[in-house]
Structure formats: structure tokens, C-alpha cells
């Protein structure tokens, strides 16, 4: 099934709608969708290495815009549900401590987690929930998401044919490693932060 998805994504790169689909996935992943844009981005860059840099730009812009939606989801959840839950469980002081810690260290959280397999939607929603500065959130998101996607573009433009050969010859292993990184990101967020 994953192999068919990979082959389908490679064929999608030639379609005029490919950048729109990539933007939609990148936007959605930053706020609510569970699948990272790399699932489309890497095969599309492999199929069209001449478009790698424009695909990275599309992912960056869409991811930051989706991150802003995620931020407002987190902000709205705190005001409507979060505060009530903290009060219900007697954790109101803990919520304030969390928000103060995020105000002080949130920039490192955004920078580090934006580059890792930790799902970015968790960062965006947490930033809104903690009341982190929206301006700083947007700036740091542009930096970290841009770095992530443009590093992928650099790797694909330099080593694309080799990477494609490795993926084609070892697809099951590469897919297993990608799934492990994806699941590991959720686990790391849960236990490390």
C-alpha cells in the first residue's frame, strides 16, 4: 500500500495541481492533519528536482499559515476548555507555571521541534495554549520550517538520484524508518516535553 502511495505521489508531481495538493497537506499538518508533508514533498522533489526549491517554499508558506491556525486552535482551547479542565483538576497554579515556562523557553521549543520529527501541530497548538507571543511564533516558525524544508530541497537537489535509488531498492526499510520517526516524534513529545 505504501509503495502504491509513493508511486502515485511520483506521478502526481507532473500534474498542474501538485503544488496545490502539497500546500494543502503542509497547511493541514501544521494544525490538525496527522501526516507530515514529507510524504508528498520527497517523492515530488525526486520526480521534479528542478522544482525542489519552489516546493520547499510552498511547504514553508503553507506550514506557517497552518501553524497560525494551530496557534489559534490552542488559544481557543485554553480559553474555552483548557482553563475549565485545569480548574476542575485543581491545576490552575500548574497552568500558570506552564505558561510562564513557555513564555521564557518557548522560542527554543519552537526552534528545536520545528526541525525534528515531533509533529509540528503539537508545537503550534501548545504555543497558542500557552499564550506565546504570536509575532515571535510566526517569525520562529518561518525560520524553523523554512530551514527544514530547504534542507530537504538541498539534499534532494544534490543527492536526488542516489536517494531515489536507495528508496526504490529498499522501500520497505525506508518506509519502516519513516514510520518509526513519525511515531517516535509523538512519543518524544509525550515523554520529553
Question: Could you name the key traits of this structure?
Answer:
193 residues, mainly alpha, 8 helices
Brief summary of the model shown:
This is Membrane protein YqaA with SNARE-associated domain. This protein has 193 residues and is mainly alpha-helical.
Provide a descriptive summary of the structure in words:
- Keywords: Membrane, Transmembrane, Transmembrane helix.
- The chain crosses the membrane at residues 53-78, 171-192.
- Residues 48-157 form the VTT domain.
- InterPro entries: DedA_domain, VTT_dom.
- It comes from Microvirga flocculans.
- There is one protein chain.
- The mean pLDDT is 80.
- This protein has one domain.
- The two termini are 33 Å apart.
- α4 (52-88) packs across α7 and α5 (92-113) crosses α7.
- It is 83% helix and 0% strand.
- The protein has 8 helices and no strands.
- It is elongated and about 55 Å long.
- The chain has helices at residues 2-12, 18-29, 38-47, 52-88, 92-113, 120-129, 134-169, 171-192.
- The protein has 193 residues and is mainly alpha-helical.
- In angstroms, what is the radius of gyration? 18 Å
Give the averaged pLDDT, no decimals.
80
**Uncertain residue ranges:** none
Query: Given the structure, what is the number of helices?
Result: 8
Number of separate domains: 1
Tell me, briefly, the overall form: elongated
Strand content: under 5%
Distance between the termini: 33 Å
Topology as H/E string?
HHHHHHHH
Number of E-type strands = 0
* Main sheet record: none
Sheet/helix structural class:
mainly alpha
Helix content: over 70%
Amino acid at each position: 500500500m505504501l509503495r502504491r502511495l509513493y508511486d502515485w505521489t511520483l506521478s502526481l508531481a507532473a500534474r498542474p495541481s501538485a503544488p496545490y495538493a502539497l500546500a494543502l497537506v503542509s497547511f493541514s499538518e501544521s494544525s490538525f492533519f496527522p501526516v507530515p508533508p514529507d510524504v508528498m514533498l520527497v517523492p515530488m522533489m525526486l520526480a521534479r528536482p528542478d522544482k525542489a526549491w519552489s516546493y520547499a517554499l510552498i511547504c514553508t508558506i503553507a506550514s506557517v499559515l497552518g501553524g497560525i491556525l494551530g496557534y489559534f486552535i490552542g488559544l481557543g482551547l485554553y480559553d474555552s476548555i483548557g482553563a475549565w479542565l485545569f480548574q476542575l483538576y485543581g491545576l490552575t497554579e500548574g497552568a500558570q507555571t506552564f505558561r510562564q515556562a513557555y513564555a521564557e523557553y518557548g522560542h527554543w521549543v519552537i526552534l528545536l521541534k520545528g526541525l525534528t520529527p515531533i509533529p509540528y501541530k503539537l508545537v503550534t497548538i501548545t504555543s497558542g495554549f500557552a499564550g506565546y507571543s504570536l509575532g515571535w511564533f510566526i517569525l520562529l516558525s518561518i525560520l524553523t520550517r523554512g530551514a527544514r524544508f530547504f534542507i530537504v530541497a538541498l539534499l534532494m537537489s544534490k543527492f536526488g538520484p542516489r536517494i531515489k535509488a536507495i528508496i526504490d531498492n529498499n522501500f520497505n526499510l525506508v518506509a519502516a524508518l519513516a514510520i518509526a520517526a513519525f511515531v517516535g516524534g509523538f512519543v518524544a513529545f509525550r515523554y520529553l516535553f
